[in-house]
Structures are given as structure tokens and as C-alpha cells.
Amino acid sequence: MTTRDTAAPATPVAPPPDEVRSDRSHQLRATWVVTRRELHRLRRDPARMLTMLLQPLLFVFVMGTGLGSIVDTGGDVSFRTFLFPGVLATSVLFTAAFAGISLVWDREFGFLREMMVAPISRGSIIWGKCLGGAIVATVQSMVLLALVGLVDIPYSPVLLLQLTGCLFLGALLLTALGVLLSTRIRTIQTAMPVSQLLIMPMMFLSGALFPIAGLPDWLSLLTRLNPLTYVVQPMRQFTLDRLDLTAEAQERLLPGLTWFGWEVPVLVQLGAVAVLTLGLVALAARVFRTTE
To answer: Are 255 and 212 a contacting pair, CB within 8 Å?
Structure first.
């Protein structure tokens, strides 16, 4: 008589997960994969790009034309021309901020969990989200940039490169800010009103819609504390420098930004934005590592 072997078959042992590789090429490749995913989302949703452009177009061509008859710019330039660089700078605001908080969507729908099990660092995910959101916002705003000739600003390759660089820097700053908020916010219902609280004050306090000369002290202080101001003012200076303005008009429409009486050069303004952006990305990566 033979006995039947009732022992359960041995369960195959899964191989241990790959460890997170720390070499730079692997992390750069992981960052590019996350960035490319953001670009694919834009390509699959062209309607989003068109709807996001509607608001800046209304600001420039409807509000700029309508208010042009009562806003005194001194006669050297139209109010629409003055308004254009400011609106162009803030056109990345909504897209970049929403790209940043899309991390909350990824968490709610489970895609973030899939990325977390991959052998990549948390910093690569954060950098990928920031770069992807910044590129998408910049590409979208370049459609508005192509209309620069319609507001009496001459087409110039140097000017277009300068404005594109400023757009990317501003978009990266705002995406990093959105990603940092997303590391602490768990639901999209909370993320949307918080992002609105962030976007609207930044837009109105950046000097995008009015000159920053002659403001009350409290408003002047808030304007200087707003990091978006240091993107708007260089873009306006690059643009107005291409026009033949008198010294009086230059002083009225583009007064220099000052810190305690020192006029801040444009390169220092943009450098301050770059340093702040790197700090926000580093902080977001650190918070992300401790919370996820």
C-alpha cells in the first residue's frame, strides 16, 4: 500500500525587488520617463490647451482694448502693448499650478503607487513632474507668444528667446510650488480651492496688470514679496526695450524694482527665481520621501 503525499507544493519564492539605483544616468532616465508622461497627457488632450489660452486672450485683446481708452500710458504705447508681457507671464500660472497638483490625482487613482514600486528615487518622480509641467505650460504659452506682432511689438528672435526662457523659469517655479502643496494634500477636493488661493493673489500682486510705480506702501511690499513679480518685470523690460520709448515713459511704465533703495538688476531677479525654484523642488522631494 502506498501513502499519498498530501504536502502542499512549494510556493515559488519571488525574486527580491531591485534596489534603487543611485547612478545618475538611471535617475535621469527615470526623470525623463515621468516628464514624457506629462507630455503625452498634453498631446492626448489638445482641448485643454485651447481652453487654457482663452483667459489670456480675453485679457489682452478684450480687456486691453476696452480699458485702453481710459488708461493713460502717456501715448507712447497702447495699454494692450503694455499689458501683453504681464499677461504672457501669468498665462503659465494656471497650467503649471494644475500640473503640480496632478500629483494628488495620481495618488487617488493609484498611478503614484505604481511609480513608487519602481526602483527609482523619490526625487526623480518630483523632478519629472516639475519638468513635465513646466514644459507643457511653456509650450502652451508659446501660442500666445506667437501673437506678439498683433500688439505692435516687433518680432525679434532674441526677444522671443528671452521671453521663452522667462516663461520656462516661471512655469518651473509654479509647478514646483504646486508639487510641494501636493505632497501634503490628500484629496483633489482640497487641492482645487487651495490652488485657487495660491493663483489669484500671485497674479494680481505680480504687477502683470498695472505698473508698480506709485503704489501704496502695503501694496508695494506685497508686490516685492511675490516671486512671480521677478518673472513679470524682466519680461516687461525685455519687451519695452524693443520699443522707442521716451525716458519719461520708461520711468512711468517700467520703474526699477528696488530692495531697500538698491535697484535690482534683471539677472539678479531671474537668479533669485531660479534659486527659489531649486529650493522648492528640493523641499518637495524631501517632504515626498518622508510622507510616501
So the answer is: yes
**CB 153, CB 88: distance < 8 Å:** no
For residues 276 and 231, give the distance between their C-alpha atoms in angstroms, rounded to a whole number.
Answer: 12
- 91 neighbors 141 (Cβ within 8 angstroms): yes
How sure is the predictor about 13, in pLDDT bands with cuts at 50, 70 and 90?
A: very low
**SS3 of residue 215 by DSSP:** coil
Pick from 169, 157, 203: nearest CA to 56? 203
- Provide the pLDDT for residue 281: 93
- The predicted-structure confidence for 115-162, as pLDDT tens digits, reads as follows 877 888 888 889 999 999 999 999 989 989 999 889 888 899 999 999
> Grid coordinates representing 133?
509641467
Gap between the Cα atoms of 189 and 60, Å rounded: 31
- Residue 76 CA to residue 73 CA, distance in Å, equals 7
Residue 9 has φ and ψ, to the nearest 5°, of -65, 145
Q: Using the predicted structure, report yes or no on whether residue 9 has a pLDDT greater than 60.
A: no
Residues counted in the chain:
292
Q: Cell for 64?
A: 486691453
Residue 260 falls in which region: left (phi positive, over 0), alpha (psi -120 to 50) or beta: left
Cα 199–Cα 184–Cα 137 angle in degrees, nearest 5? 40
- 241 pLDDT band, cuts 50/70/90, is confident
263 pairs with which residues across the strands? 258
The half-sphere exposure of 172 on its side-chain side, counting CA atoms within 13 A, is 22
Kindly state the DSSP code that residue 150 receives in the 8-state scheme.
Answer: G
The overall longest dimension of the chain from CA atoms, in Å, is 112
Angle between helices 122-145 and 79-108 (to 10 degrees): 150
What integer is the mean pLDDT of 44-50? Answer: 73
